[in-house]
């Protein structure tokens, strides 16, 4: 029976006398929801493209390294194969598919599951009541002994930058999957800092406008800003406890060397939390100041309206009296009665106008 080297086949009971040829891996095509799938050994990425099955088999055959798979908004059918291969808990998989979760940290057997809220500042020239200043998304991370799976929901917060930074630092990446978890958490918290700085600029502009004399401020702008700050607060505050647990050694899956890095991320998050809290208090103060300013403006407008009503009512009253058509009335048949009446009306209006102007009603 002839050898079949061109097909790379080995038949039972026959020996192929030709020297073994080096095999080349055919790149595994990535689907729309699989952003990237890579193997890292000693902090370096192995060449070639992999699917999730071949990748984890290669890592476990070597006995070192880990797999990092990035997913973007997978459906339940799409993630089931990966969940079965890596032994992911069904409750965590359900959270990763449907999203809309609060930031949290959970442990399922030998897998760590963390949820983070991603935020992005939306810069526009004008603000409408329905517009958004803070655009939010979600990021789920599965961490195992030899794998990391990131699931991203939303159009922003891509992890390509995180992956590039870690690949450029093999010493850090060699610490294992927990180093990737730290890189993701640090990237998310850094985005919080960027958003809070942008919001700080917006609030400073609103504050200057509120306390600027003779300016009209729309209270809806402040309500919009307060709503978006509350949205940011819901993303930031619940993340404090998970980061504390990771820094304190909540699970042995986080390497000892990585815990100190989580403490640094926790410090940055504390800074963001303080800024968000101050934003909320300042916006509340600005709302009160704006309402007081609006009330003062309304009182000023009412004084002006009342003054003009008083001025107009004087000639109206005189005209109403002499328009009753009684026969016996003073000066009704006097030749100068009409011009004198007009002069009296004009003088009364001028006197009232000067009085109101002196009292700053007009």
From TrEMBL:
One of its GO terms (molecular function) is magnesium ion transmembrane transporter activity. GO terms for cellular component: plasma membrane. Coiled coil: none annotated. It is found in: Cell membrane; Membrane. It is a multi-pass membrane protein. It catalyses: Mg(2+)(in) = Mg(2+)(out). Residues 1-27 are annotated as: Disordered. The chain crosses the membrane at residues 305-324, 336-356. Keywords: Cell membrane, Ion transport, Magnesium, Membrane, Transmembrane, Transmembrane helix, Transport. SUPFAM superfamilies: CorA soluble domain-like (SSF143865), Magnesium transport protein CorA, transmembrane region (SSF144083). Mediates influx of magnesium ions. Alternates between open and closed states. Activated by low cytoplasmic Mg(2+) levels. Inactive when cytoplasmic Mg(2+) levels are high. NCBIfam families: corA (TIGR00383). Belongs to the CorA metal ion transporter (MIT) (TC 1.A.35) family. This is Magnesium transport protein CorA. It comes from Saccharopolyspora thermophila. The lineage of its organism: Bacteria, Bacillati, Actinomycetota, Actinomycetes, Pseudonocardiales.
